Amino acid sequence: MEKHEKEKKKLGLSTKIFIALLTGAVCGVLIHYYMPEGYFRDTILINGILYVLGNGFIRLMQMLVVPLVFCSLVCGAMAIGDTKTLGTVGVKTILFYLCTTALAICVALGIASLINPGVGLNIALPEDATEVATTQVDFAETLLNIIPKNIFTSLSAGDMLPIIFFALFVGILLAAMGNRVSTVANFFSQFNDIMMEMTMMIMSLAPIGVFCLISRTFATIGFSAFVPLAKYMIAVLLALAIQCLGVYQILLKIFTGLNPIRFIKKFFPVMAFAFSTATSNATIPLSIETLSKKVGVSKKISSFTIP
After folding, report:
1. According to the model, what pLDDT value does residue 223 have?
2. Where are the alpha helices (DSSP H) in 35-138?
3. Residue 69 to residue 160: CA distance in whole angstroms
4. Of the residues 33, 60, 152, 206, which has the maximum number of CB atoms within 10 A of its CB?
5. Residue 283: CB partners within 8 Å, gap ≥ 6?
6. Is the pTM of this model over 0.90?
7. Is 57 in contact with 205 (CB distance < 8 Å)?
8. Nearest to 293 by CA among 260, 261, 273, 270
């Protein structure tokens, strides 16, 4: 009974991340307004401790992305086995992705035309600012770029599409060859388990990472700097909220019949992490883990669709 009560009282990761977001913002504002400028505040605290801990955490998550995605996809393709099923899942994923992207664009354009962020705000560009050259890549080249010339180059550069292509190829072959390649299949399965365990270890540090990232942001620019950008910030937050809490939850209810509120409760750490770090790549490991452990999505599906 006592053990059960202790487990109940233990704060969940969602709560810890949320507390870290709030306390980080408060701490950052206090540093900006009440701590005197100088070597300790600027160099040691803001650009030293907070910068290293915050970005160190993001790097730890980024470190996981390539090996975890690669192994997850190999294991996913191997688990599905049948290329026909794999093709069906792939086509459904692409179509769903295109639809949600189109909906996101509609939401963004709608909110932007309603609020008109940036109107009346004059931001002077630095004198040394240069125009960024844009390169156009045609459709044929885009398709060809999916096939890696050198898989090790793609792995080291973190180039996702070639990694996904090669991983699926390996997974399908492992499934087709069966017992002849059981040692290699076991290696990928066990290495995938190691990566998942590593993800959970690193995610236990999430509240510290989130606290440092948010705290440094507020300590650097203060609260008053947000006021001129309020319209832009409101537009971004409103668009994100509509897409995340509206569009996605309606789709969830239509296609699965699941309770959106229960889903949000379980998926909140992923949302909070993606929001506070502003990186989708680094969120991949946590997404796969959360879907598997809390939502009950099969790893062979999530490891294939999430990347």
Report:
1. 67
2. 51-80, 83-115
3. 9
4. 206
5. 61, 270, 273, 274, 277
6. no
7. yes
8. 270
